[in-house]
Structure formats: structure tokens, C-alpha cells
Write a structure and sequence with these properties.
- By secondary structure, the protein is an alpha/beta fold.
- 29% of the residues lie in helices and 20% in strands.
- The chain has 3 domains: 163 residues, Rossmann fold (3-Layer(aba) Sandwich), CATH 3.40.50.280; 282 residues, pyruvate-formate lyase- activating enzyme, CATH 3.80.30; 63 residues, OB fold (Dihydrolipoamide Acetyltransferase, E2P).
- The strands form 5 sheets. The protein has a 7-stranded mixed sheet with strand order 3-1-4-5-6-7-8, with helices on both faces. A 5-stranded mixed beta barrel has the order 18-19-20-22-21.
- It binds iron/sulfur cluster.
- The site of iron/sulfur cluster has 12 residues, from loops.
């Protein structure tokens, strides 16, 4: 049997320390661990920020597998350098969204194998061929890149995993959840579907000048035709690489999702996010699903999935919160909201607006319209949900006019009942249509206008929590307020910090007493903390 594998979760680590999404556990590293377990190979997951300072621990492992995004390149470089220093032998595998720029990553990081795109089937074949122990003919394995005589070699593309394989051949590790610090308090992402249904494309030129030639495939009634672009423009919103990398949506069976969630809850997880680029694509339409707005959501499949999850004892007793995030506004109707309200105690649908300009929205390849987003927020609010609305500053095509329209639209969605505005700076992702476009900067004039507006709205929204009691779960000591503990909302609500030390997983109720920033409130514990 092969030796122990250290799986390093570098997702969102940037240059080595996660500053955002600290309460999130993504599904990629557990999916990788599931393939090692399938082959009877022992593995352990560690966050990169825990491993980098504890070098000696590396000696316990024989091989390294790193999961990372493009933004994490510096952290991964540090990690692999450290590994090579302590362990001259043993394989180094690297995968995740970082692999979208293979030539650069091979040159900069020099892993033994870079796994491109979906990792499970590729890793399965590598382990089948005994790659950890022997030299194998890497050129014959699809979906990887490696250095051959110091030159990048990229093998043939691997076919996407089928719906059946996603449900039956591969299964994410649940036992390795215990490797994460404070996992009991974290949002644990469970993948319910992979890929995105938006096969529209941007009308702006790519960085190399390639331009849409108006062949009309993007609007074809034939769903297979929408996949083909004669100009090879990546599908989807220009800033996003999901449909280009992961293809159109493939849903996991409710049985497979249910057993994964059940095992995680039995290990003490309290917060589960049903991960999907678009939740309402779950079991929607026929394959390939390339129209983001038609047909409507498959309500019976959604009802069945949520109903079965709700019947798990920890959920029905109210000690676990199951949540959903991303939803496309054009699919979010009254019927959808009604179904979700029946099946979920509370929820915060995340709705992408990106820009307040309808013209700009269409030009970047996004589906729907700003009015769709306002309507979706109103529908959500009418059903007691707390929708978050996402925008991006620094996008290609941003002007004084689109900025003004975005400010107006932030106010409209706020009035319509948005709980929070989440504003991101544009990052140029390899594999997306806007790859190699200049990135946003904090100094951008339009970005500053948008940030100020978002901050004003978010502060007002936080003030609405003053004197309210919010149920939360203790996570970790505060890094900014000495002697305080960070408390994540168990259901919906703000990030909180309270005086005193509480161990991870402690359930408590907090009365909010003051707003510290647009993203953080403080308060006092008002009941006996309990462990579940
Ligand atoms: S498939 Fe390509 S060329 Fe045809 S309309 Fe869409 S972006 Fe334009």
C-alpha cells in the first residue's frame, strides 16, 4: 500500500493566510481524499496556513497533493518549496482551479503532475497505474500537464464525468472533515451539482482581439449548438471560468447527497451549504443544459432533496442548518420561493447582479436583467428570506454611466429587501473570456464610488440587528479583538464577536449590542451555551 498522503487545502489562502471565507470548507479537498480512500491510501487534509509554520509535520507524509485556486499561487509556491526541502522523494500533485493556466503553473511551481479540470477520474487513473510508486507513461493519461525535459507537456483533454459517475463512482470523503479546525462551526460545502447552464458569451473582445462573429449559436434553440463557438470564446459570464472548465450542469443523486450529509452531521457538522454554481439548475431540463433561464427549476426534485435532508434528526431538531447560496434571478419565481420556504427554516439566496446596467450585463454575457434581480429580491423578501446581492467593480466595459446605474440598482435592491450587498473587485481568471484583462484596483475611481455605496447600505443593514438575539456557533478566537471569540450565525445573520473564550462548536444566543463594521457586530451571550 502507498504511504500517507498530505492533502493541502490552499483554497482562498492567497499568499498563505486566509483573510476571507475563514468559516468555509470547500468540497474539493474532500473529493480528492475520497479518491485516495477508494484506493485504500491513507490521507490527511491540512489548511496551508497551518502547515507552513509547522514544517516538521511534513516528515510524517510520503506524498503531497495540493488543491488551490489561481489567487493562491504564492501560498502553493511556498508549500511546494517547503515540501521539497524536507522531502526530496514523494510525488507532488497539484489541482483545482489553479490548473487553468498550466504552462505558467508548471514553470512556477514544478509539481510532478498538474491535474487539469475535474480531478476525480484523472486521479483515479493515476492511482490505478501506481503513479505514487512507479514511473508511468504520463503522456497517455488524459487531463494532466507535466514537465518533460523541462518543457510543459499538456495531455489530451479528459471527458467530463457523467451524472452517473458523479453519484456512483466517486464519493467525497466524510471522515476527513475532522482534519479541519473548528469544522463543527464552519460552513461545510456539499456539492449537489457541477457546471453552469449559462452558455451565452461576452460581446467584448478577448484580450487577444478575438471577437464574436454573431453566428447566433449562443441563442440557438438547440442546446448542443450553444456549446459550439466558432471563435472559441469561453462560455458564460466573461469574468467566470465555470462553464468553460466544468461544462454544463450535472446533478448528483439525492441518495448520494443525503448519505454524505448524514455522515457529516454524525461527525458534528452544524452548517451545510448545498454547493452549486446555480442551485436552481438541480436536475433541471435535459442534458446538455445550456440555457440559463429555460426550462424553469425542477421543483419536485428540489422538494424531494430538501425534504429528505430535513428528515435527518439533527436538522429536524433545529441544531443543524442546511443552506443554499447561488441562484440565477431569472429562475427564482414565487413557486420556487414557496417550495424553499416550506422546506427550509431560513435562507439567504445569493443573487448575482454584477452590474446595474442592462446593456453592460448583456455585453459581459450574463443572463437575465437588473429588473429580474429586483424582482427576485422582492420575491425572496416576501417569503422571509434574506437575499445577498453580488456586484463586481472594475469589470471590462465599466463606465461612469454603468457605475451610476449600479449605485441606483444597489439602492433599489436594498429597498426591495436585500440583506447585504457583496461587492468584489474584478479578477482576471485563466480559462475565462476576460483572462489577461487588467484587474481592478482599490484606487479605481468607479470602484471607490461603488464601495462607498455598498458600505453605507451594509452598515444600515447591520444596525437593524441591534438589540436582536441571533443564534450562533462559536468558531475561533478573534484575531482583531483580544479575548473575544468569533461567532458564526447558525442560520442567517451577521458575523459576530463576543467577549470570552468558547470552544469551537458551542451553540449560543447573542444579543447584538453594537455594530463594529459593515461586516461585523458584537454583543453579549444571553443563554447557557450548549454543545450539541
Ligand atoms: S457562439 Fe461565439 S460567435 Fe456565435 S454568437 Fe456566441 S460568442 Fe458569438
Amino acid at each position: 500500500m502507498s504511504g500517507r498522503v498530505l492533502i493541502v487545502d490552499a483554497l482562498s489562502a492567497g499568499s498563505g493566510q486566509r483573510t476571507s471565507s475563514r468559516d468555509s470548507i470547500g468540497c474539493g479537498p474532500r473529493a480528492v481524499a475520497g479518491v485516495f480512500e477508494k484506493h485504500g491510501i491513507q490521507c490527511t487534509i491540512r489548511r496551508v496556513d497551518e502547515v507552513l509554520p509547522k514544517r516538521g509535520a511534513l516528515k510524517r507524509f510520503d506524498h503531497l497533493a495540493v488543491s488551490a485556486m489561481t489567487m493562491d499561487q504564492v501560498a502553493v509556491q511556498k508549500m511546494v518549496k517547503l515540501w521539497r526541502h524536507f522531502r526530496q522523494q514523494g510525488r507532488v500533485l497539484l489541482g483545482g482551479p489553479i490548473a487553468a493556466d498550466p504552462e505558467n503553473i508548471l514553470k512556477q511551481i514544478r509539481p510532478d503532475v498538474l491535474v487539469i479540470g475535474e480531478g476525480e477520474a484523472t486521479l483515479d487513473e493515476l492511482l490505478e497505474s501506481n503513479f505514487l510508486e512507479e514511473d508511468v507513461a504520463l503522456a497517455d493519461i488524459h487531463g494532466i500537464a507535466f514537465l518533460e525535459s523541462d518543457k510543459p507537456r499538456i495531455t489530451n483533454k479528459r471527458d467530463l464525468i457523467s451524472t452517473e459517475e458523479l453519484s456512483e463512482r466517486f464519493y467525497p470523503s466524510t471522515s476527513r472533515i475532522i482534519d479541519y479546525n473548528a469544522y463543527q462551526a464552519c460552513k461545510v460545502y456539499v456539492e449537489i451539482l457541477r457546471g453552469c447552464s449559462n452558455f451565452r458569451r461576452t460581446k467584448y473582445p478577448l484580450a487577444d482581439g478575438t471577437l464574436c462573429s454573431e453566428c447566433s449559436n449562443c441563442d440557438s434553440e438547440d442546446s448542443s449548438k450553444r456549446i459550439e463557438c466558432p471563435e472559441d470564446i469561453p462560455p458564460g459570464c466573461g469574468f467566470c471560468s465555470v462553464p468553460g472548465t466544468w461544462g454544463s450542469p450535472r446533478s448528483r443523486s439525492a441518495d448520494s447527497i443525503l448519505s454524505e450529509v448524514k455522515e457529516l452531521l454524525d461527525l458534528g457538522v452544524h452548517r451545510v451549504i448545498l454547493e452549486a454554481p446555480g442551485f436552481l439548475d438541480y436536475m433541471r431540463g435535459t442534458t446538455p443544459l445550456t440555457n440559463p433561464c429555460h426550462p424553469p427549476a425542477n421543483l419536485s426534485a428540489i422538494e424531494d432533496l430538501l425534504g429528505r435532508l430535513n428528515s435527518l434528526p439533527q436538522v429536524s431538531e433545529g441544531n443543524v442548518h442546511i443552506a443554499i447560496e447561488n441562484m440565477k434571478a431569472c429562475l427564482f419565481t414565487d413557486e420556487v420561493a414557496e417550495t424553499m420556504k416550506k422546506s427550509m427554516r431560513s435562507s439567504s439566496p445569493n443573487i448575482g447582479l454584477e452590474t446595474g446596467s442592462e446593456y453592460h450585463m448583456r455585453q459581459i454575457g450574463k443572463c437575465g436583467s437588473p429588473e429580474d434581480v429586483v424582482r427576485a429580491v422582492k420575491v425572496a423578501k416576501a417569503h422571509d428570506m434574506k437575499p445577498f446581492v453580488y456586484l463586481i467593480y472594475g469589470l471590462p466595459g465599466e463606465t461612469a454611466e454603468t457605475t451610476e446605474q449600479s449605485v441606483q440598482m444597489m439602492r433599489s435592491v436594498s429597498e426591495a429587501g436585500a440583506e447585504r450587498i457583496i461587492l468584489y473587485g474584478f479578477r482576471s481568471l485563466p480559462g475565462s473570456a476576460f483572462a489577461k484583462y487588467p484587474e481592478s484596483s482599490l484606487k479605481d475611481e468607479f470602484g471607490q464610488i461603488l464601495r462607498t455605496e455598498a458600505e453605507t447600505i451594509n452598515l444600515q443593514k447591520k444596525e437593524q440587528y441591534l438589540e436582536k438575539v441571533v443564534r450562533g456557533i462559536a468558531a475561533e478566537p478573534s484575531r482583531t479583538h483580544h479575548g473575544f471569540t468569533m461567532i458564526y450565525p447558525l442560520e442567517e445573520g451577521p458575523l459576530m464577536t463576543v467577549p470570552g473564550g468558547f470552544s469551537a462548536g458551542t451553540l449560543l444566543s447573542v444579543k447584538v449590542t453594537s455594530v463594529l463594521s459593515s461586516g461585523l457586530v458584537t454583543g453579549e451571550v444571553v443563554d447557557e451555551p450548549s454543545h450539541d
